[in-house]
Design a protein that fits this description.
This protein has about 110 residues and is mostly helical. Helix content is about 45%, strand content about 10%. It is built from 5 helices and 2 strands, in the order ααααββα. The protein is elongated and about 65 Å long.
Length: about 110
């Protein structure tokens, strides 16, 4: 009998939480290791799409500049030197010299797995 995408996704999520190797998780869960490798590859590459923000919006990210409004430049503190983005339990701190392509890739992964 063929297993559903949701069934494999549940095993993939459990595998990530287990901290076991793919071989050990497959053996413990009584699933075919080769088939599981294939599904892991699909989930990692994003070929198995779920209902995410990426599906409803354009996959291209548009960046905007954001600058804090500070009346007295001498009062600039460390809290204004970076932007923090929170996705699930992950916190991303962005400084002025960030790499937009890296941030795009990281946020997509976090949104998929949040």
């Amino acid at each position: 009998m063929r297993k559903s995408r949701e069934w494999w996704k549940a095993h993939y999520d459990n595998y990530l939480l287990s901290k076991l190797s793919i071989a050990k998780y497959s053996n413990k869960s009584n699933i075919n290791k080769s088939t599981f490798y294939g599904w892991i590859k699909k989930f990692r590459e994003g070929n198995v799409r779920e209902n995410t923000i990426e599906e409803t919006n354009s996959s291209e990210v548009q960046w905007a500049s954001i600058e804090p409004i500070i009346e007295d430049v001498n009062k600039i503190s460390k809290e204004y030197s970076a932007l923090k983005i929170i996705i699930g339990k992950a916190i991303i701190e962005i400084t002025s010299d960030f790499n937009p392509k890296l941030l795009d890739a990281v946020t997509k992964v976090l949104i998929k797995n949040a």
